Amino acid sequence: MPIDDAKLADWQVEIAHQFETEIKVHFAAEEQIVFPAARVFGELNPLIEDLLTDHQRLRACFAKAEARQSSQEELLAFARRLAEHVRKEERQLFERLQELMPKEDLSALGRQLDRALENASRVCSLPNPTK
Hints:
Elements: H1 8-39, H2 45-66, H3 72-100, H4 103-116
Helix pairs in contact: 1-2, 1-4, 2-3
């Protein structure tokens, strides 16, 4: 779906806001809690490295949006990249962790993650046309 050029700045503001209030916290929680727990299973290390690379690239996209330097095409590519990253975590990392990790360890990991994400925003908002 194309982004109206008149709304491009609004989208970049919202993307920067979402990073600061939610996604930055999620990335940190994954990097400090989930990824180290997953590294215990050597077969997951290449996937973790790939996810860390995704985080670096996505952070660069967020920074570019925050600086209001993203083009319409870059924002659309960024949205696809973020969606692919989330699917990779859900369908590959989390699925495999559920198979490899004992249930009690998985529950403890979930509790740690819940605590780490307590302060993350739970609301996703779109640019407000009245602003």
